Amino acid sequence: MALRTAGSVLVVFLWSVTVVLGQDGWSVTYTTQSICTLKGSTVEMTCSYTYPSGTVTSTLWFTKMYDVENYVSLLDDPDYKGRVTYRSDKTNGNTLTITHLRENDSAMYMFRFITDQTGGKFFGSPGVTLSVTDLQVKVTTTWWSTTLTCSTTCTLTGNPTYIWSRNSKNVQEDSSPSYSVYFNTEDSFYCAVKGINSPAVYGPKNTSVSVSPSGGIVEGSSVTLTCSSNANPPVDKYIWYKTKYKNMSMRHSGQRYTIHNISSEDREG
């Protein structure tokens, strides 16, 4: 079983919540206080600002301040090189856009502006808290079915739609991140959240057993059997059975099975 996603880039736009921070005619208004979005996507943070007099000469967004009055504009921060743009409008609005988000972009983002008046500097704090999460798939298996769940470390902003495909054919589009399915090992499953990729998920393949020590085994000695398989997520439960005259009996659970005082009876199965 394989799981992938394909499509376009997720862009988060937020225009609903207003957060005003200011005093004495100075203010910064953020459209939201927090955003949770996916690694690899694009995010936009928007604010507006007011000031009592003068003309704005400089604006910037920042997450780092090395010391007093030493703010690092994201445009000059090497961690964001080539991924950040600012956009201003005629009504004292400003939008920060960050593309190709990384998990270490998670931080609080604040807006600062400077006017031509003496002491005419202001920034809004606290700012917008951005949480960047990767899209993982959790697999829950019972005797009768398997449930695949697109999982994130925070609740995604914007109530996204989760799209599941089976062998390249869409089978579910829903606000629920979970999909229950009966599948064959040759099936491929795909999960998408507006085009953001999840890791591949597939059942056990290329299962094999190694024997230690290798070569001839002396009766009365011990031998260790190790089962290996290629799967994602990795196999977490191994069960060893012995067959005799078409009957199966469980002997051990775990990836390794050591048989002590081995005898000729152990050749069967």
Short description:
The chain is mainly beta. The chain is built from no helices and 24 strands. The N terminus is likely disordered.
- Largest sheet geometry: 6 strands, mixed
Total count of domains: 3
| SS-derived structural category | mainly beta
Flag low-confidence runs: 1-9, 11-20
Query: Helical stretch count?
Result: 0
Can you give the helix content as a percent range?
Answer: under 10%
The assembly state of the depicted protein chains is single chain
User: What is the CATH topology of the largest domain?
Assistant: Immunoglobulin-like
Q: Can you walk through the features of this model?
A:
The N terminus is likely disordered. 0% of the residues lie in helices and 54% in strands. Strands 2, 3, 4, 6, 9 and 10 form a six-stranded mixed β-sheet that branches. Strands 5, 7, 8, 11, 12 and 13 form a six-stranded mixed β-sheet that branches. It starts with a strand and ends in a 10-residue tail after the last strand. A hairpin with a 4-residue loop joins strand 14 and strand 15. The chain has 269 residues and is mainly beta.
